[in-house]
Amino acid sequence: MNFHRKPTTFVSHVNIKVQNLVRSLQFYQEIIGFQILEQTSTTAKLTTDGRTNILSLEQPEHVIPKQGRTTGLYHFALLLPEKKDLADIVVHLSEKGVRFGSSDHLVSEALYLHDPDGNEIEIYIDREPSEWNWNGEEVAMAVDPLDFERLLENRVLGQSWQGLPERTLMGHIHLHVAELKKTEEFYVMGLGFDVVNRFGSQALFLSTGKYHHHIGVNTWNGVGAPKPPENSVGMESYTIVLPHEEARKETVAKLQSIGVTVLEEQGRLFTYDPSGNRIELAV
């Protein structure tokens, strides 16, 4: 499956803010299974393969707890390589006494849990794309119960949990937004994503390359929800990878044509969606 490599445009990295870096690192290593790639007194870059940073943590000055009813992170989603990996983490979380939710989305099977600051994490495995049901340009997704008995049949008995597999990816991100009309224009006309599912009038799922979704957006925190304070727990930014430099230039031009500002910071390009979610445009 080539949904998270060029020439597809995809989400590769998320940077989140936490209240206590030491506490968060313990959670992300012992419970989720990351390794530390780089660390300072207030930041950490996490990896699964010892080379690629897919999740970063930072502890802002004068940090305050996660604020409710705002825009920002709904969840980030870690995509595992194989079904046995999801089965293994079910057993691991159960043994650690960690509470988690679950769902069968037809296109994927997923677990949901929160870090110590309330940032939500999805951990999932994709079904084979040949099993996805497309109705024209929209893919069928649902929120059905997960069949744990069937999932756990994929376990390799006698193997101890070794943390996240090295081929784990940032599969997608799901965001709270203030409204959907301008948001759809931004992601479709500006960034070049396709709408692949409309969840009533409250959520959109977007992708490139016919993936079930690289980005989800919803108004479940209320239409007109405000942007959270800069120093609150939540998402600092996420990264979209474009196929090549020419594609990035074209994307910048499209964004500017619809009135969106693109900023350069130390050689990196950033923009904001209409709800204030910060996005790095990478190649």
TrEMBL record:
InterPro entries: Glyas_Bleomycin-R_OHBP_Dase, Glyas_Fos-R_dOase_dom, Glyoxalase_1_CS, VOC_core. One of its GO terms (molecular function) is metal ion binding. The keyword Transcription regulation does not apply. It comes from the Bacteria. Keywords: Metal-binding. The keyword Metal-binding applies. PROSITE patterns: GLYOXALASE_I_1, VOC. Residues 10-126, 169-283 form the VOC domain. PANTHER family: CATECHOL-2,3-DIOXYGENASE. This is Glyoxalase.
